[in-house]
């Protein structure tokens, strides 16, 4: 079952991206390096609660 998750920037804590993940195969939190509009650079984005 795929669920929607929100990704937040680690630097400025803004919630920029919404994506989906499969909870059965990925039980831990997602971490991706994405472009943050407020920081104007590529930063680490993590899944929020």
Question: What does this protein look like?
Answer:
The structure is a single chain. The protein has strands at 2-9, 15-22, 31-36, 41-47. With 49 residues, it is mainly beta. The chain is elongated, with a radius of gyration of 11 Å. The model has no long low-confidence stretch (mean pLDDT 93).
Summary tags:
49 residues; mainly beta; four-stranded antiparallel β-sheet; 4 strands; 0% helix
Q: What topology emerges from the helices and strands here?
A:
Elements: E1 2-9, E2 15-22, E3 31-36, E4 41-47
Antiparallel strand pairs: 1-2, 1-4, 3-4
Number of strands: 4
Average predicted confidence as pLDDT? 93
The low-pLDDT segments are none
Q: Encode the helix/strand succession as letters.
A: EEEE
Q: How widely separated are the two ends?
A: 18 Å
- Beta strand %: over 45%
Q: Radius of gyration in whole Å, from Cα?
A: 11 Å
**What is the count of DSSP helices, taking H or I runs of 4+ residues?**
0
- Kindly report the spatial arrangement of strands forming the biggest sheet: 2-1-4-3
**Which descriptor suits the 3D outline?**
elongated
Sheet/helix structural class? mainly beta
Question: Quick one: biggest sheet?
Answer: 4 strands, antiparallel
What is the percent of helical residues?
A: under 10%
Summarize the structure.
The chain is mainly β and 49 residues long.
